[in-house]
Amino acid sequence: MRSKLFVPGSRPELFAKAMAGPADGLSFDLEDAVDESRKDEGRRELGRYLGALPASTGKTIIVRVNALTSAHFAADLEAIACPALDLVNLPKVDTVDEVRACAAALAKVERAQGLDPIGILVNIETPRSYRIAGELAAASPRVAGLQAGWGDLIEPLGIDRYNPAMMQQLQLHIRIAAGEGGVWAYDGAWANIKDAEGYRREAEAARRLGYLGKSAIHPSQVPLANEVFRPTDAEIAHSLKVVAAARQAAEKGIGAWTVDGKMVDAPFVRRAEAILAVARKLGLVAREEGSLE
Asked: pTM of the predicted model, to two decimals?
């Protein structure tokens, strides 16, 4: 999921257009993007649209629900739970218990509707959630990833949003926390839609830190994320060499070896396999090419 486009839940006229676009994932928003007076309308329209989708859409389907402590959370889950839904994006999380309560609520809805398990994408957007991000990542097997919520996290603190050096420190912390829980990290939105270079720069920093992709709040940002998070030809070529060498090393019982003058062992092989998995999904290499199976 190189790119994830936010779509307001109260704008049904945008749903099909977003689905037809190039974003790898869609994050339908019932929280901040929907005014309090239109919450009922938004969840009704979104529930109707998602319920009519096939189980497999070719995109990752995410819904940002209202906070667990809000009056809307339970109704949101009831409205949006369906075979097409991949992830519930849980905002304003401050405790491990909130993640577990969300998981329990999902399990109840799934049992009632006969659905497969739905994952959770946890937002890191409060000072406390930032501090305990590793605990949140490991709070439930349903947690698929941590998502940076830059606006909510740093704007109230008066932190300079457009200071790259400072932002990379925050990105690194969330990425390491995600790694502690064995889940992926996803970069937050870039509010200045006209600043394409700024978006690209932050996306490139996130990619170097091992993020899965970057959110987009406007369709014009989607191609930038897709390009930045696409494995390069050089990365693919090197990864193919690493996997081929790993196969030969295993046959000889060798635990560490060199590829292009660089030492390689198990962690490097896993990284190469991850790069090739993305490349195969994008059709950049054959399905069987570079596989250790």
From this structure: 0.89
